[in-house]
Amino acid sequence: MSAPLVLAADVETELVEKRSRFLTRLHRVESVEQADGLLRAARAEHPDARHHCTALVLAETAQRALVHRSNDDGEPAGTAGMPMLQALLQAQLVDTFAIVIRYFGGTKLGAGGLIRAYTAGIEQAVAAATLLRRTELVVAQIEVSPADVGSAENAVRIWAGSHGAQVEPTQYSTRRALLTVLVDPADLASLTEDTARWSSGRVEVHAVGRRTADVPR
Predict the structure, then answer these.
(1) 99 near 125, Cβ under 8 Å?
(2) Which residue, of 69, 130, 154, 203, is most buried by count of CB atoms within 10 Å of its CB?
(3) CA separation, residue 4 to residues 32, 67, 135, 154, 213 (Å)
């Protein structure tokens, strides 16, 4: 299964279908309570809209189970919230709250037309969004002497830049400098080999754990 995706930032798009306006908002969220607050804000901002349909996907964590929710908000059952939810799932998005704010244009779209419009609204917003890939990275640490930290940081950053790895701020003590790199498990061997090369075998890479991170696709 492919890694899930998350929003880098919230996004809003607009779709017009037979004079009905569909304003689609995608929000990155961490809880049901946060999503509820965003819905209240949308209702307050657009009090004249006919419908505020929603879909929510929250990833499973140690504190909660996977969350899938949707609401048609007065549209015929199954024509709005569920198509929106299915579009989010199809896009492999998690920790995402979608609101489609509909201003009725005077022409009924029918069940099929509504499903297509709400689905298209989500798909259009997803296409406009910047997405990150959620993955599990190895926490790799490299210990060097304070005298060698400058050359070590330069070598590690060059390697990280060519492999899409994340370098954290160096930690210092009186006897050592500790470099930490968040690296894809598949690239750990490459980091180890590169470190052995620039240090002439004097420095080793130690994998000390794993961390979930959101990285560019």
Answers:
(1) no
(2) 203
(3) 19, 14, 8, 32, 11
Q: Are 89 and 34 in contact (CB under 8 A)?
A: no
Three-state DSSP state, 112:
helix
Query: Range of 158's domain?
Result: 133-216
Contact (Cβ atoms closer than 8 angstroms) between residue 182 and residue 165: yes
pLDDT at 35: 98
Structure tokens at 87: 């579009």
Residues 119 and 159 occupy one common structural domain: no
CATH number at residue 73: 3.30.230.30
Which residue's entry shows tokens 């470190």? 195
**pLDDT < 50: residue spans in the chain:** none
The helix (H) or strand (E) run that includes residue 111 is helix 110-128
DSSP letters, 5-57, are EEESS-EEEEEEETTEEEEEEEEE-SSHHHHHHHHHHHHHH-TT-SEEEEEEE
Q: Are 214 and 130 in contact (CB under 8 A)?
A: no
